[in-house]
Structure formats: structure tokens, C-alpha cells
Amino acid sequence: MFFGQKIHPLNFDGPDRLTIGTDAVELSGANVRLWVRCTEIADGCLRLRFENERVTDGRQHSDAVLPEHRPGRSVVPQMERDTAVFAATAGRVELDATRLRLELAGFSLATVTGGIGGCGEALLLNFDLSAVDGCYGFGERTKHLNKLGDSAEYLTVDVVAVFRHTYARDDYDPTYVAIPLAILKSGERFLGLFFDNPGRAVMDAGKSRPGEFWYQSLGGNTDLYLLAGPTLAEVVRRHAALTGRAPLPPLWALGYHQCRWSYRNATELRELAAQFAAADLPVSALWYDIDYMDGFRLFTWNRAEFPDPAALNRELKAAGIHTVTIVDPGIKREPGYAVYDSGQAREAFCRTASGREYVGKVWPGDTVFPDFTLKTTRDWWAGWLAEFLRDSALDGVWLDMNDPATGYSRTEEMRFDHGAVPHDRYHNQYAHFMALASRRACEQADPNGRPFLLTRSACAGTQRHSAVWTGDNASNWRHLRMSLPCSLNLGLSGVAFNGPDVGGFMDDVRAELLVRWHQAGCLFPFYRNHSAHFTRRQEPWQFGPAPLAAIRGAIRTRYRLLPYLYQCFFAHWLAGDPIIRPLLYHYPGPEFSDLDDQYLVGDALLVAPILHGEGQGLESIRHGVTAQERPVVLPPGWWFDLNRGEWLEGGRSLPYAAALDELPLFARDGAALPYYPGPLKNSLMDLSAIELHLFCREQPARFDYFLDDWETRRHESGAYGVARITAEIEGGRLRVVIAESGDYPTDTVRFSPVVYGHPELRELELTINGRAAIQPLRAGQRDWLCRTLDVQA
Ligand code: MIG
């Protein structure tokens, strides 16, 4: 398997003639014929379909776009001199015989000379980047946030199995997720290009030839979706509207997760729960990796080690600890094993071209693979998985090895639809259909509840079914640093619910790295410590009291802010904004174009984690305490430093030194952060009493707090409300107004304001649903990170 190679543009044949039909423009040349069609899809979104005469199977096999957005309204081309024009509401597309030009929301883009071409089934679209100064999205990638000067190949792989060297590096290309979305930036304007082709493809943003963006699909036809800006947020929201947004997760799934490949018996699980309690650490879920199974047979337990898994899982859940098991797609090829036999009877497995069951080599030995593209297979799978979840009292599903990983057996022989559809049409979508089938299983097992699924591999649209973790990273500082741009770009690419293995999966972690990774990741959408079985153990208490205390500060801060994170998920479900965002999302200035060592949670919290250590960064020792210094870029306005408890003026970069138990964490002036003040007992949280932490130095605060039951799917049919919160400074008084509306009972949550204000604030006027009361502000204290800060309440 070769990565990073592409087809030289000189190997493509370009068109030189243009003819216009009723709904398509035909581009042809000596050895090439392409048809281009334009469809208005939704507000600010156009589809350009490129059909290449050489493509043998012209069907669109991609499931990326939501079914309701597939038809659209066709735009009729008009000739203007020798140019064909698609004039649509969202923008304008012009084609002459050799060039494509487009303009959406003030962003113009054109192909270069020779920028449209075909080479067999391959399609080349080659754009001029001279006005472009940034490139984002790209799905799950390594390296940096800004992809200008970089290239990416879209083929999902089991990265470490195929490229063993990767975990020592930070510059490799292969990843587990294929989302060919490029968001181009030109000054303060953005434009999204989503290339919907489920096959292998390449995007090269000026790496091979500076100043040119190359898209090359290697087979099948491509639908290019144009997503209008002008802001980055508009592009991201339009892409999310097109491909789907993450459904609301259950609250427990937003807590802290503990995993490790090697938890191998019931005693060990019970010990873990006891260790968390003893270490005074909340934990919301414990995970079972492959060792729980009987000989790696799916939907079985090793009964010698786990005599009564349902009883164990119920016991843990009573203490607020949920459980999740790994589920691989590979099914042991063993006549007599009921899962295999029933799948065979249902013709549920992938086949070779001649119709044999495709055989791979994974954990159980010879394995067969469910063909999740078939509805019949998905129903069969959902039946088995739902029964397993119910019988074992499990709460979530972890989908691994679905890239798909087939061991020494090549994947290319694996075909779909009883052998009729070649591998490459569904390779990148294997995990997607597995996630769809598995989500159905969760719904079957618990018809009213919210499923929780985590998958390694994914493509555009998979966020509708599952969260994603970024796969096998390693315990080193480069992988910690890379985890920020990787998760940020994945969020911009539609997968809001994601996160890395905190602490690193491969290799041995050390104390300082583990602490810094917990701090960096404790406000990521998904927060799980996971490691490989042959590495040093890395549960929070493994390195003694000082690292444990620092990690405790990070984990507790997550739980304190869980209501805020939940609100970010709610807002994502409604509008598509990512949970964590590069600063560029809200501040489009050039100083933020490449900034990827700090991030925002929602629009109110700024995290600037320490990403160097062990003597490599700017280390200093003051009063015997070692600190790491880094620059922190604060956007304009005031920011409240939650680490030290003081206001800082933004609009500058400042040096910040943080001891091991300190995380540079800032709240924006004008922020309202819902804070959980209650006891920390794993996932057992009573959110009917919430504190509203109001950061009002000069700016009024506004926040929409969504009201729902935190656990059912009733919000999906509109049963939710919103509490509109405003806080304004009037002399020495802070006026807070909370007004609830929507399809939900009022006064289900008791909000208590806590003020981080101007020192002159003396009084609070609180109006809740029309009832007003005035009270003096009194000095108080609140826990943040490893400190107790003085506040007014
Ligand atoms: O061949 O299940 O990425 O998280 O612990 C390795 C064992 C298979 C790969 C996953 C990792 C998991 C491991 N799996």
C-alpha cells in the first residue's frame, strides 16, 4: 500500500470543447468526456456532479449526505458567449471548455490551466490557490491545523498495523477516517469544498505544486458540494446540515472514561471502581477491551473470568459507573459457533468476486466480515448486538478494527452485495454502515434511551451514528501536541464528538506527560484514558500523589463544567457548531490562522494547555517549584484566568508559566458558564440545581441554556425548552434575567448566579420567569482546577 502518491497532472487528458444540454454541460476532448450538472441543495449549498464517461459504475454509493438533501433542485445552464453559466441562489458557477470558475458569498475560486481532466476513472480538479491563505477541515489528520502546503490521502487504514513506524512520529499521513472536506480561507472569507466520493481520493493543498490545490478521485464519480461562507462557522454549519449532526449523547458519556487493553476479570473491574473511590476521582464509565470474550468470539464472555457480567455491570451502574464493550466486525469462521452459523444462513457476510465468503485473519483467527451495506445484515447484526447489550446490562458500544482491519489478508478481495460491488466503493464506508447497524441495536436494546457508540474508523456522515476516537496514538509529547489540531479539524469536518486516547496508547507514559495530557484533554468532547496492554499502566493514581492531585483537578473541572459541555452538545445538535474550536472560528485575524496549541470550548472558554515537558520546553524553577512556560494568545477583551483567579486584558500574547498542577484556562468577559456545584459521585449528578458563573467585567453575558430531561430522546420530537439568560451591569448592580420558553415545563432547574465581576459590583437583581428579587453579593469560594477561587455569590 503506497501512501502519498498521486497521479501527475500531466497524465490527465483535459477537455477542449463545451456543449450545453438541457441540464448538463458536456466537456470533451480527444480522450476524455465529462458531464457537469449543478443542483441547488440547501441554503448556501450547491452540488456539482462530475460524471466521467470512463467510470464503469456511475452510481453514487456514498451515504455521506442526508437522504433529504440528495435530490435538490436542478439548475439549468445558460450560454453567455462561450461560457456556460449555472446561476443559482447560493452562488454562480461558470464553465468554459477548459476552466471552472465559481463564486459563493464573495469567495471566488477557479481552476488553473489544465485543471480539469480525466485519466481512466480518475478525475482531476486543480484549483488556483493564489488568493487562499489557509486550508482547514480534511477530516482526521496528523500534523497541523492549517493544511496549506500539506496533502492528504483518503483511504481508511488500521494505521499502526499497516505503518508501524507512525507512533514515533507526527508527520505521517494515513488515518482511520476519510472526510474529504477542504475549507479554504481567503482573508476573512471562507468556502467549503466537500468531495463526495466514497472511494480512494487525494487532496493536495499546495504540497506537490505550491499555489495549486489538487483533488484526485481514483474511481467512481464525484459530487462536489460547494458550501458558502463567508464565515468559517457558516461553512461548518452548512456541512453539518448536509451530512448530519451528532445526536445528543447520554449525560454519563460526557464524563470521564477509564479504559485499558488488559482489564481481564471481574475482580479487576471491581478493584478499579474501588480505586477511583479511594483516590477521590469521579469516573463515569469503565471499558472492556477484547479480553472479555471467549476466544475473541463476538457476543460471548469468558465465563471463567466474568462469571456474571450482567450482575457486575448492574453493580457498577448502581455506583454511577457505566460499562462499554469493544465490538470488532470480524466473526470467527467456526461452524457450530451460533453467530457464524446464523450469519451464514442469512448470507450476511462479504464475498469475493466468485461468491466465496471473504476470509480475513484477525484476533479469532480466520474471520468473516458482515456486509453492513445490506439491510438484511444490519437487521441480523442489530438483533445479536441488542440481545448482547441487554443480557449483559451494557450501556455502550466501542467499534474497533472497522477500517476494516483484515490482518495479513488483503482487503481488496472483500466485496459487497453478495460479491457484486467492488471493495473500493465501500472500503471507507465499512465503519459507517457498521455504526449505523450498531446504533439500531442500541435503540432496540433501549428504545427510550440515548445510544452511546464510539468508532475508530469513519467517513463523512458517521457522526450521525457514533462518536470517534482518533485511534492508536503514542505516549509522547508530539502526539499530545498533535491531538489538538487533529481533534479540532475533525470537529470542523462534522465529527464534533471526538477525542484521543488521553495519556497515549502505545509506549510507556511518564508522570509529567500523563498530567499534561489530562489537562489538555479534560475539556475535549470525548475524554478517555486508554493504553495498550504491554505498556506501563496509566490510571490516574499510577505515579504517586502529586500527579494524582493534578489529574484530579483536571477530572473534577470536567465534572464541574459538564453542564456547559452538555449545552455545547445541545447547540451542536441544533446548529452544527463544533464543541471545541480553533480560535479562528470566532476570531478570523491572521494571527489565528495557524494557532493550534490552544483552543476554545464553545465560544466562552479558552484552554492553552502545557504541551512541552521533561526539560524540553521553557522550564523554570521558582521557590523550588518547576513550571513550564508557554505563550498564550488572548483575543481582544478581558479574560478571567481560572487558574489564578484574576482578570487579564486580551488582544495580546503573554508568557504564562504553569506548575504541574496548573492549566491555563480562561473565561471570556461576557461568558455565562453553567457549573455543577453538587457532590462528585461518578455519573450520579443532580442537575436540577445549577450555578451560573457569570463573567461580567465590562461585557454583558448572554447564554441560551437548553432544558430537557438529559436522558431520553423526547427532545428529538421537539420536547425541549430554552432558558434565555442575560446579565447586564448597571452601576453597582448586576441585572440577571432568565426567561424560559419552549416545549418543556418551566422552573425545572434552579439557577444560582455566581459573579466574577468588576470589584464595584455590590448587588444582584435576579428575575426568573418574571419574578424579581434583589440581593447583596457576598464573598464566596469555588473550586477550579486545583485551586479555590474567591467569587461573589
Ligand atoms: O489490534 O482491542 O485501536 O484501542 O485497545 C489492536 C485492542 C486492536 C486497536 C484499538 C485499541 C484497542 C486494541 N485494538
From TrEMBL:
Pfam family name, one: Glyco_hydro_31_2nd
Keywords: Glycosidase, Hydrolase
Domain Glycosyl hydrolase family 31 C-terminal: 576-672
SUPFAM superfamilies (alphabetical): (Trans)glycosidases, Galactose mutarotase-like, Glycosyl hydrolase domain
Record carries keyword Heme: no
CDD domains tied to this protein: GH31_glucosidase_II_MalA, GH31_N
Domain (Glycoside hydrolase family 31 TIM barrel) ranges: 247-567
Domain Glycoside hydrolase family 31 N-terminal intervals: 66-204
Keyword Flavoprotein: no
Family: Belongs to the glycosyl hydrolase 31 family.
PANTHER family given in the database record: ALPHA-GLUCOSIDASE, HETEROGLYCAN GLUCOSIDASE 1
Protein name listed in UniProt: Alpha-glucosidase
Provenance organism: Candidatus Competibacter phosphatis
